[in-house]
Amino acid sequence: MMRNSRYLVTGGAGFIGSHIAATLLKQGEAVRIIDDYATGRVNNQNAFETMPGQFEIINGDIRDLETLKQAAQGVEVIFHQAALASVPRSIADPISSLEVNINGTQNVLIAARDSKVRRVVFASSSSVYGNTPTLPKHEEMPTAPMSPYAVHKLTGEHLCSVFTRIYGLETVALRYFNVFGPRQDPKSEYAAVIPRFLTALINKTQPIVFGDGEQTRDFTYVDNVVQANLKAATAPHASGQAMNIGCGERISLNEVLKIAGELLETTIHADYRDARPGDVRDSLADISKAQRLLGFDPTVKFATGLALTLEALRAGTSETK
Ligand code: NAD
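# nicotinamide-adenine-dinucleotide complex -> structure
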């Protein structure tokens, strides 16, 4: 028997989805979650029990439209985070990535349309811009995906805007720029760079850098991304739009290691390997559109976010924050 939930978080056992769900639950909201635990973890949801809001977890696959239709019943807003969220994974296995990232996204939109959901907020990615030399990247620039994953995310955005135009379903696509924070999986074969670096440093092993380490990213602490999602759920002029979500700060991998070394009071000698195919060289967000349309204000800056992430990893509480 389904409870009444105002919010559905797809991928709510994952890194970003679990933070969105936790924030809503802390506010006392009723939240439903759907996840098939492909990359998500039960541990990410442990802290939900202690929060005032009510939650309901559906162990289900977004490739299954019927399951999604049930999950969307009575829901007002869907935060669609579920995906096979990795560039290298999509290169190694483009078929499953496409099935989840494109077909799964269309299923979410169909279920939302049929259940009269008011708005879907879609997790897109800065990877849609590709390797364009212009920085910062802004939404008027042409997109140029360089990996299957980036194609999937761009297609998801197009599906969102088409569903808005044709069916009147409100949608907002948020182009996340390199999100990091507690609960991000450090162990997977496709782990993101910050949890990989921090775990290596804590375990006193050499962090591996693909390339010369001078490539830059707009690393965005997860709380800023949660804020963007919650604002995108209601912002009156955001529907049908795609916009960047970052901090507008450009940090190289070598700088990440330097700041992490300072926090850990150690000198770091990284193991430099060949650059990976499909990786972009530089990335920096122009966030003025999200500031204008959402009132987005990324308050947690990189160094603070890194310290919080390190603290959670060291305390072994990364998974339950
Ligand atoms: P994550 O892997 O931690 O979370 C994704 C979740 O989706 C996992 O819990 C996974 O089990 C679930 N999932 C995968 N396939 C599913 C399926 N078929 N049915 C149901 N659930 C399924 O990754 P994340 O970093 O939290 O990413 C969340 C979203 O943000 C993704 O859509 C990703 O593409 C996007 N994104 C993330 C970043 C980043 O830096 N982390 C950057 C840009 C975009």
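# post-check
The domain at 7-177+222-247+286-298 is CATH 3.40.50.720 (Rossmann fold).
The radius of gyration is 19 Å.
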